[in-house]
Amino acid sequence: MKKIYLIIVFFILAGKNAWSQSKEIKADTITLKELEIPNSPAFILLDQTPSTIERPSSSKAFALSILNSFQDSNGIPKNYAVDFTPFWFFKHPNMTSLKYAGYNVENKKQRVFGNIERASISFAFITTNDTLTQKTINNLSIGLRFNLISIRSKQDIKDIIKANSDLIKSIRERDDRLNNFVDISLAATNPTLYHLKVKEFYAQDREKENSEEKLKDILARKSVFAIDGAIGYNKFYLDNKFSNGHFGRFGAWLTLNYSWHIDKNANGKNYFNLYAIGRYLSDGTSISNGEYQKQNFYDFGGKAEFEFKKISLAYEYIYRDSSNSNTFRSNGLLKYKISDNLLLTGAFGKNFGSNNNLISMLGINWGLSTGTEKATAKEPK
């Protein structure tokens, strides 16, 4: 019975070998990791978020954000947002690891605009109280976030090309081992030796798994420089009445990101990040003579962040210029990565304005994958 089992194992392996040998181009599918769970731009538009400056280089397919301010008396969260990345809701059989990394095989240059197609859409529901009228305000917001430019370091590109080549090489060597595995007669004449050969084959197969993990780690490295864009629109309703709907805000902003890899290990996750932001806001929430008036804001600022494997510490400062008065936002930020799909964020500091301007927030960001976040390691044609 044992001999029959070993013979069946051989034919399964031989069948896999024949199928793989029939393909001219060797390929292997890998699941992408370290996709980010950023704060929703629908939150950021209303200044109701721990951090105004974000870097969403590649977001998860779906994210849920729950935000609570410690100023709320009952402690029940009132702010919720969902983010979708439509790109990851569909399969992309032509998404190779080199293409995902932003490398054009034909002209051997980076595709710096390659991430635009992975834009995310967000919706947010925020409940606040008007500090003057004490009326309940329900805010509905929608936002769009996209990566305009992403540039990897030359060393990262070299490492990605090499890791992709090494994985393809390990696939080819695996096929060769299958092809030269062992004579089928050995299963009948010496089952013990045949069994040892099978174990040896799978022990050598770990090389392929190691090559896969190495490529995943390199693809997860941050680009050295990126420019991200976002727009958002908000409408608010007074006293839970649809008829009391008013224009709230419209905003558009650009964020410049620079990341310095400070880890001695090339695949480490320690970075020092610098950010700069420029934002335009059209705000319709100010009351003058009993009516809501529009005014324009211009925000400029930056953030410095130390990012480690599980924890990141940051400080951000944003100056707001308006026709009536100038103000600023200044706060510290702490992020803790509970898991790849769960992020805890806390912030403390001063928000814009002179009234009700304390920032004391705790947020949870929960990301989900669809299973389509994959790339193929393939020999370039």
Q: Quick gist of this model?
A:
This is DUF3078 domain-containing protein. The chain is an alpha+beta fold and 381 residues long. The chain contains seven helices and 16 strands.
What is the approximate shape? elongated
Q: What is the structural class?
A: alpha+beta
Major sheet summary line: 12 strands, antiparallel, barrel
Topology order in helix (H) and strand (E) letters? HEHEEHEEEEHHHHEEEEEEEEE
Helical residues, percent? 10-25%
Q: How many β-strand stretches?
A: 16
CATH fold-level topology of the largest domain: Porin
CATH architecture of the largest domain: Beta Barrel
* Radius of gyration computed on alpha carbons: 26 Å
Number of helices: 7
Percent strand equals 35-45%
| Assembly annotation | single chain
Give, in spatial order, the strands making up the sheet with the most strands.
Answer: 2-3-6-7-8-9-10-11-12-13-14-15
- Counted up, domains total 2
Mean pLDDT across all amino acids: 83
How far apart, in Å, are the first and last alpha carbons?
46 Å
Q: Could you give me the name of the CATH homologous superfamily of the largest domain?
A: monomeric porin ompg
Q: Given this structure, which CATH class of the largest domain is correct?
A: Mainly Beta
Low-confidence spans: pLDDT under 50, at least 5 residues? 5-25
Protein name: DUF3078 domain-containing protein
